[in-house]
Write a structure and sequence with these properties.
The complex is a heterodimer of chains A (623) and B (201). Chain A has helices spanning 22-26, 31-60, 70-104, 113-131, 160-188, 201-233, 248-280, 287-300, 316-344, 353-376, 378-384, 388-418, 424-450, 467-497, 535-538, 541-544, 548-551, 560-563, 573-586, 589-592, 596-619, and strands at residues 552-553, 556-557. With 623 residues, chain A is mainly α. In chain A, helix 4 (113-131) runs parallel beside helix 19 (573-586) and helix 12 (388-418) packs antiparallel against helix 13 (424-450). Chain B has a domain at 56-180: Immunoglobulin-like. Chain B contains three helices and twelve strands, in the order H-E-H-E-E-E-E-E-E-E-E-E-E-E-H. In chain B, the strands form two sheets. Chain B has a seven-stranded mixed sheet with strand order 2-3-6-12-11-8-9.
Chain lengths: 623, 201
């Protein structure tokens, strides 16, 4: 296949049987459509969480502001953190997992298409349970890491934390189901010749992330089950007066919480590892090292959790051990950064919007990574912990790392998703306003943190040297908001009116670019045989896809039926199962209200409904 | 069917890599040695430099600890500020501070250059002890008595901020530590004094 971008056709290729309408979306089991659902939902929550952040920054713009009450402020920052972690960055990554993994490994769908749909609907239901209460002033208000005993019923007696506990449990189900699905897909469904060391790096990083999910999420599930029992059934897992260890929650949370950081960042690393080679016209520098360092980051990620807890006084031995493991984890991360720089070195770089976001990730993540190494030293961390310095650090990692990487991915894969290009001029405006805004918002937080400003304070007095830095941070949010507005205008406009992309607008090397954009529901009319890490650069076209005469008929693509490819039936059952499961768990809320019969009634009814739905699901044929 | 994995670009002729340059080898060696020095400095700071605050933690009943704090406050009480006792313990004494939503109890009046054993604990939820503007942070958790030997080195009227989110009044949770010199005077501009003297608690 040619290394040059293929000329774009005049109209979008289609099989002529692509159904639209709300019912087709509710019943879909197609991994690409589920990916789009994840993308759109996560972008919606991105706006939601962004607005929360904007209100927080408006409140902190000057000393002693009273824009919101302290109660509302606590709900806002808790929901900002929870939304951005669980409802924005994780599902944005999921959007790419869903859309890309089968395409990159040459498969027709994921291993369990209906389970995949179930994951999405459970995620949506969990997201609604967590986010909706803020409209009624009852949102969770214990911080995104919800330290017990503050979150136990003795100190948070309202419904607020209940929504948080239930919502996170539900979201955990979605993540776990998806993780098993993707692991099975990657292990079992690779095209002939797609050995592990030929897999695209995004698929590799996704593979690592799924293992992190199945190892880390059970820990938070256990912690949340304890809290749930404490809150609803009066147990004493976190009641210090009854002899509980006050650090139990912190340890459990961070054993989950630190791998979670890598769950958030590794997919973005995978995306830029796709973008940088394409726009540098060079293979990824040190592919095996990038893969191994990704695995190493995932493994080491489980041995660093207590660096979030240096200030609780674990003693010098524990502090030193966790300092060293934290410094160690910087090595594979640094290796990746240097590999990306080496990939660009000497390449023919094209500064598309996607490439610019990828380069920005390399730069911004390095800033966040370096402040991370500063925290790894326990004495230094004692001065920085719980101050705005930490806030600056993890926003550089999550916005400068994960969000910029995901944006690079959105600009890069939008043509494959929709068949149309995102507008490059608007894209450049988006890039510059957003990146400038990000730095203007988060860099001054280093300073306000070093001047002693604690996290999560509702307001502060003048005269402590914090005013200017807070004002700068708040101004930065305006730039970020402008940037994201431009992005959404571009996104919606290009979806309808963008230039037709063609199969491979970027001249990219991986399998997903060999097939039409948008991708027909069966993905590959013919399962390709892979003999190279960069099949589209190294292999002949005929080896990968059938000729046009075999895949098209009468000016359109052949349908799955015409090609003799069995396709899974659309089904509403995953949605029904997700609704029953969520309703069953939400029945617990009535125990809090003191209405035990109603709670039991709801839980038993919905439990039976779930059981019948699952029986129907398991006994109905897949295809 | 399997062909060689290659780049799609024109192959680079011959041996494309060169042995590491002398400068590169020196650079790697220097970096490695520096890593080892930093690594050794961690325990060294701790044992020799007094850098890592080596607190001792013991299990304690939150209510019992609070009762002990109240008894301690009554014993050495020298004044009152907005209902909180100001307590001036003698040098070398065990000093108790309890964090409770949303205050630090009591207000301490310590003398510069004298050593005290500070006991920190919480009555209810997790709090954070942060001495402003010196940025020393300890988490104060219920059920654990965090014992710490402190010698004030700067005089002034210092603030304790709570830096672990503890609920609705988190931002109002500010305590006081007054450090006086031998003659019993405080310096009025404590922030400048503390930073100027490289102050440490």
């Amino acid at each position: 296949m040619t290394t040059m971008a293929a000329p774009a056709p005049a109209t979008l290729p289609t099989t002529g049987e692509y159904k639209t309408g709300i019912w087709s979306w509710l019943t879909t089991v197609d991994h690409k459509r589920i990916g789009i659902l994840y993308l759109v939902t996560a972008l919606f929550f991105f706006v939601w969480g962004g607005l929360e952040a904007a209100i927080i920054r408006a409140q902190l713009a000057g000393p002693n502001m009273g824009l919101v009450t302290a109660q509302q402020y606590n709900q806002l920052f808790t929901m900002h953190g929870t939304t951005m972690v669980f409802l924005v960055i994780m599902p944005l990554s999921s959007a790419f997992f869903n859309f890309l993994i089968p395409l990159q490994i040459g498969a027709r769908d994921v291993a369990f298409p209906r389970l995949n749909a179930f994951s999405y609907w459970v995620f949506l239901a969990g997201g609604i349970v967590v986010t909706l209460p803020i409209l009624f002033g009852m949102a969770p208000d214990g911080g995104w890491f919800g330290y017990a005993p503050l979150t136990t019923k003795a100190y948070s007696s309202g419904y607020n934390i209940d929504y948080w506990v239930l919502g996170l449990q539900i979201l955990g189900v979605a993540s776990l189901a998806a993780a098993f699905n993707f692991i099975t897909t990657i292990i079992n469904m690779r095209a002939p010749g797609m050995v592990l060391m030929r897999m695209p790096v995004f698929t590799w990083m996704s593979f690592v992330v799924q293992f992190l999910v199945i190892l880390a999420f059970p820990v938070i599930t256990a912690a949340l089950v304890f809290l749930l029992f404490d809150r609803f059934f009066g147990t004493n897992f976190y009641t210090v007066a009854a002899g509980a260890d006050p650090l139990l929650w912190q340890h459990l949370f961070w054993v989950f919480g630190h791998p979670e950081v890598y769950i958030l960042i590794l997919p973005a690393f995978g995306l830029v590892s796709e973008v940088l080679p394409t726009f540098s016209r060079k293979p990824l520098f040190g592919y095996p090292v990038i893969v191994y360092s990704g695995i190493l980051i995932g493994a080491l990620g489980f041995g660093v959790w207590a660096h979030h807890m240096f200030s609780v006084g674990m003693g010098p031995i524990a502090d030193s051990v966790f300092s060293v493991t934290t410094m160690l984890i910087a090595i594979p991360t640094g290796v990746k950064i240097l590999n990306w720089v080496s990939t660009m070195w000497g390449g023919q770089i094209r500064f598309t919007t996607s490439m610019m976001f990828a380069i920005a990730l390399v730069a911004m993540f390095t800033v966040g990574g370096i402040s991370g190494i500063m925290h790894s030293s326990a004495p230094a961390d004692l001065q920085q912990t719980d101050s705005y310095f930490v806030v600056a650090h993890f926003h550089y990692v999550l916005v400068g790392g994960a969000v910029l990487g995901i944006m690079a991915g959105v600009y890069y894969y939008f043509p494959k998703l929709t068949g149309r290009m995102l507008d490059e001029t608007l894209g450049k405006w988006h890039f510059w306003t957003f990146v400038i805004g990000t730095n203007l918002t988060f860099f001054p937080m280093h300073m306000s943190g070093l001047y002693g400003m604690p996290r999560r304070i509702y307001t502060y007095d003048a005269g402590q040297g914090w005013e200017m830095y807070n004002l700068l941070s708040s101004i930065g949010v305006i730039f970020q908001a402008i940037g994201m507005t431009i992005f959404f205008v571009n996104f919606i406009r290009s979806w309808k009116k963008g230039a037709i992309a063609g199969n491979n607008p970027w001249g990219a090397p991986t399998l997903e670019w060999a097939i039409p954009s948008p991708v027909p529901d069966y993905n590959f009319a013919h399962i390709p045989v892979v003999t190279s890490r960069y099949p589209l650069w190294d292999q002949k076209a005929g080896d990968l896809v059938k000729s046009e005469a075999e895949t098209t008929t009468g000016g359109r693509l052949k349908t799955a039926a015409e090609l003799g490819i069995p396709m899974p039936f659309p089904t509403i059952l995953p949605l029904v199962a997700a609704v029953f499961m969520t309703a069953m768990l939400c029945g617990l809320l009535f125990i809090h209200a003191g209405n035990l019969p109603l709670a039991l009634g709801i839980m038993i009814t919905c439990g039976l409904g779930l059981a019948f739905t699952l029986i129907k699901w398991l006994t109905s044929p897949l295809e | 069917m399997l062909t060689k994995v290659h780049t799609g670009l024109e192959p680079v002729p011959g041996v494309w890599w060169k042995p590491a340059h002398k400068a590169e080898k020196i650079w790697v060696a220097v970096a490695f040695v520096w890593c080892m020095i930093l690594f050794a400095m961690m325990p060294l700071w701790h044992w020799k430099g007094g850098q890592n605050p080596s607190g001792v933690r013991r299990r304690v009943d939150p209510k019992a600890f609070y009762a002990r704090t109240v008894a301690f406050a009554n014993q050495y009480k020298v004044g009152e500020d907005k209902g909180l006792p100001i307590v001036a313990p003698p040098a070398g004494a065990d000093v108790y501070v309890t964090a409770l939503t949303f205050q630090w109890y009591p207000i301490l009046k310590l003398e510069r250059g004298k050593e005290y054993t500070l006991h920190l604990s919480s009555l209810d939820v997790n709090h954070g002890f942060s001495l402003f503007p010196i940025n020393v942070n300890f988490q104060v958790v219920p059920g654990y008595d965090y014992g710490l030997r402190v010698t004030p080195t700067a005089t002034g009227d210092f603030r304790i901020l709570c830096n672990e989110f503890c609920g609705i009044g988190h931002h109002t949770m500010v305590g006081r530590v007054i450090v006086v010199d031998e003659a019993g005077r405080t310096v009025s501009d404590n922030a400048a004094a503390a930073v100027g003297q490289g102050g440490q608690p």
